[in-house]
Amino acid sequence: MGKIDIDISKFLHDFFGFKKFKGNQKQAIESLMDGNDTFVIMPTGGGKSLCYQLPAIMMDGVAVIISPLIALMKNQVDNVRSYSKNYDIAHFYNSSLNKAELEKVKDAVENGKTKLLFVAPETIAKEKNLFFFKSFKISFFAVDEAHCISEWGHDFRPEYRKLRKIIDSIGRRPIIALTATATKKVKKDIIKNLGISSERLFLSSFNRPNLYYEVQPKIDVDKNLIKFIKKNSGKSGIIYCLSRKKSEEVSELLNINNIKSLPYHAGLDQSTRNRTQEAFLMEEIDVVVATIAFGMGIDKPDVRYVIHYNLPKSLENYYQETGRAGRDGGEGHCLLYYDPGDVEKFELFNSKKNLTEKEINTQLLEEIVTYVESEYCRRKKILHYFGEKYQISNCDNGCDKCNNNRPSRDVKSLLVLILKCIVEVGNKFTTKQITQILHGLAKYIDGTDIQNLKSYKSLDYEDAFLTKQIIRKAIVEDLIVKNVEQGGKLNLTEEGKIFTESPKSFYIIETIDSPVEISNKNNSNFDKTLVLILKDIRKRIAKKLKVPPFIIFQDPSIDDMSIQYPTNIDELRNIIGVGKGKAEKYGKDFTDAIAKHVEINNIIRPIDFQVKSKPKKNDLKIFIIQSADRKIDFDEIIEQKNISGDELLDEIENIVNSGTKINIDYHIDEILDQQQQEEIKNYFMKEAKDDSISNALIHFDDEYEEYELRLIRIKLFSDLAN
Q1: Model-level pTM greater than 0.90?
Q2: Residue 363: what are its φ and ψ, rounded to 5°?
Q3: What is the dihedral of CA 586, 589, 591, 596, to 10 degrees?
Q4: Which of 337, 319, 156, 152 is nearest to 241 (CA)?
Q5: Helix, strand or coil for residue 202?
Q6: Taking the CB of residue 417, how many other CB atoms lie within 10 A of it?
Q7: Domain boundary at 140, 173, 203, which?
C-alpha cells in the first residue's frame, strides 16, 4: 500500500487542495482501488463524496455514480469541474438532457475525456441504455444515498433494489456504497441487497460536533422564527414544513419581513424548482422553505441553519435534513419547533397505510417523539439511535439540554418499578403498554387481563409522561433494549438486571413549557470585514461563470484567508481547500483584494424589529360564528362551505384560540349525554397534564372518538379561557 498511499496523498493535495484525509476516507479509497466492494457510512460533511471522486480521477476508465436526485448530480458535476481545466471530466446522464445533449455526453465518455458519470437508478435500468454502459470501460460503480435500498430507510426507492442485478448485467466491477445515515436494520439491508462483505464496512462517527441541536415549543412561532433569522442575517438557511401550503405561507411571511425566500415542494413544476435551487446556490435568496416530504438534494456546504417548522416523520429524516447545515465544518444551528398536534397528524397518515408500513412508520414516529420530549442530551439520543455510544456525559453545550442548568430529580426508585414490570410481563409489551399497566390506563392489553399484575397501578401517583421519559432515558443508557423487529417490545439488558438488584442514582431533568432564548455557541476569530469583501468577490465571479459561489471557494477557505492574509498565488495554495488549479483559476482577484485590505472595526448592533403578518380572510370565521349563534346543524355548515368535519373543528378551534367565545352546546348535546360530557370535562380539568388529544385517547382506552374529545376541549376553552 506504500505507493498508493504516497500517490493518493499527493493527489489529494495537488488536485483537491487538502493536506490530509478525514476519518476513514483514506482506508475506504484504498479498499476500492484494491478492487474490493466497499461500504462507507459517513455523516454529511464528513467528505463522503471524496471517497469516489478521488479514485475515479486516478483509476483507468469511467466511474458510474448512481444518485437519486438530478439536482444533486448537477452540483456534484459542477464541484468536480471546479478543480479541473477539463470541462468533460464529469457529466450527468439523465432525463433532464435533450437528445443532442445526451449525444455530447456519450461522445465525451466514449472518447475517454470523462472520469465520472452520474446517472439516476431509473436511467441505468432502462434496456435501451445498457448498450451504452457496455460500450466503455467502467472503473467502478458508486451507489450514493444507499439507504434508499431499505424500506426502513428514510427515502426508500424501489429502483435501488434492482441495482445489483443491473450492475451484474453490465459487467462485474467493484461497488462502493455510500450513505450518511444507516441504522442497524438499514445497514443489514444494504449489505444483503448489494452483496457487500461487512468486512469492508468503513463506519465513521455519526457525531457532527459543529451542529447545535435545539427544540422549542411552538409558541409565537412566527415571531420567534423571524427573530432567529434576523439575528443570522446574511446566512443561508433551510426551513422544513409539513405541507406545501405551509411552505408557501412561511415563505410569504419571510418576504413580508424583508427576508429573501422561496418555497420548494413537489407541487411546483420542475423549472420552478430548478430556479429556486439556483437562486439559493447563487445566494440570490437567503432561505428556502421546503416540504419535509420532498428531498431537496442541494449540495450547498455553507447552510448555517436548518429549521423544522413541523415535526419530521422520523429521527433518520431529521438527521439527514439537519445534516445539510454546516457541511463545510462551520457553524450549523438545528432548530425544531414542536407541536404535539404534528404527532396526531402523522398518526392519522399512518392509520391509512397497510399493516407493514403502519408498523414501520409508528416505530419511526415514536423515535422522533422520544428525541423531542426527552430531557437529556440530544446528541446522545441521536448517536444511540444509529448504534453509537457517546462517550462523555454531555456534548460540550452543543445542544439546548446540555446548555441549560435546570433542576433534576433522582428517579431510581421509579425506574426499579418499571424494570420489574418489564420482567413481570415476560418482555412482551411496548413502552406505551408498560405505561398503561403502571398507571392503570387500561384493564386489558391485546386481550390479556392486566389488573392482577403486581405492577398494575404501581405508579398511578406519578405522571404517565414522566414514566415514558424514564423508559426512554433507560433505553439510551442501555438498561432497557427495544426490539424493533418485534414491534418495539421492551427487554432488560444485563446492566438493567444489575440495576434492579443494586439501584443507583438515575436523574431526569425537569421539563419546561415556554421558549428559551436561543443561544449561539459558535464564536469566530477571523476578520469579518475581510470575509465580507472576499465573499462579494466570490459572488461576482460565480455570477459571471454561472456556478454557485461555494464552487469557487468554500467558507472555510474564505475564513482561512481572513486569518492568513495570503497576498500571492503561492501563499494562497497554503490555504485550506485551495489546490493549484483553484489558485490559478480564481486566485488573483482575491490576493489583490487582501493585499489592499485595511483592517477596520465593524460593529453590528442588534436591530429592533416587528414581525409583519399577512392579512387573513375572516369570511369563514364570521360565517361559522353566525351559524353557531343560529344553531345551524354542523352538516349544513360543512355542505355550504364545502369543507370536511375536521376542517370545521380546526376553524372553530382557531376562533376559540383567538379569544372569541362560541356556543356549540347544541351540537355536543346531540352527540354526548351529560354524564359523558362531565367525564371528559373532569379528565381535562383534573387529571390531564396537557390538552393532548393523543393522551386523552390513551386515558379513555378509545372509549371516546377523537372528534368527541376535541368538541369538549373546544367547549372548555370557550367557556373558561375567553
Answers
A1: no
A2: -70, -40
A3: -170
A4: 337
A5: strand
A6: 18
A7: 203
Instruction: Please report, for the domain that includes residue 123, its CATH number.
Output: 3.40.50.300
Q: Give the structural domain span for 128.
A: 2-203
Q: What is the CATH number of the domain that holds 588?
A: 1.10.150.80
Specify the pLDDT at position 659: 57
Answer yes or no: is 534 within a domain.
Answer: yes
**HEC-encoded secondary structure of 632-693:** CCHHHHHHHHCCCHHHHHHHHHHHHHCCCCCCCHHHHHHHCCHHHHHHHHHHHHHHCCCCCH
Q: Is residue 81 in some structural domain?
A: yes
520 within some domain = no
CB 169 within 8 A of CB 352: no
Domain assignment present for residue 395? The answer is no
Whether residue 186 is found in the same domain as residue 224? no
Residue whose C-alpha is closest to residue 421's, from 409, 441, 436, 443? 436
Buried b (16+ CB within 10 A) or exposed e, 158-173: ebbbebbebbeebeeb
| pLDDT score recorded for residue 199 | 65
CB 70 within 8 A of CB 96: yes
Which residues touch 185 (CB under 8 Å, ≥6 apart)? 150, 152, 484, 485
Per-residue DSSP letter, 399: B
Task: Tell me what pLDDT residue 342 has.
Answer: 82
Scanning 440-505, the segments in alpha helix (DSSP H) are 464-476, 494-501
8-state DSSP, 547: S
What are the per-10-residue average pLDDT scores of the chain (722 residues)? 64 86 90 92 81 94 89 82 90 87 92 93 86 92 88 70 88 90 82 79 86 89 90 92 91 93 88 88 93 65 94 88 88 91 76 75 83 83 84 77 76 93 90 90 85 90 85 85 78 92 84 44 64 89 80 82 83 76 85 78 38 58 86 86 82 73 89 88 73 78 83 79 50
Strand partners, 481: 491
Q: Which amino acid is at 607?
A: I
pLDDT at res. 511: 55
* Residue 514: per-residue pLDDT: 40
Which residues are CB-contacts of 710 (< 8 A; sequence separation ≥ 6)?
649, 653, 693
Q: Is the dihedral of CA 559, 561, 563, 564 positive or negative?
A: positive
Q: Which of 18, 89, 8 is nearest to 578 (CA)?
A: 18
Q: Give the integer Cα–Cα distance in Å for 270 and 266.
A: 8
Domains contained in the chain, number: 5
**71 and 197 fall within a common domain:** yes
What's the pLDDT at 543?
Answer: 86
Task: Examine the domain organization and report whether 679 and 591 are in the same domain.
Answer: no
Q: Are residues 353 and 449 in the same domain?
A: no
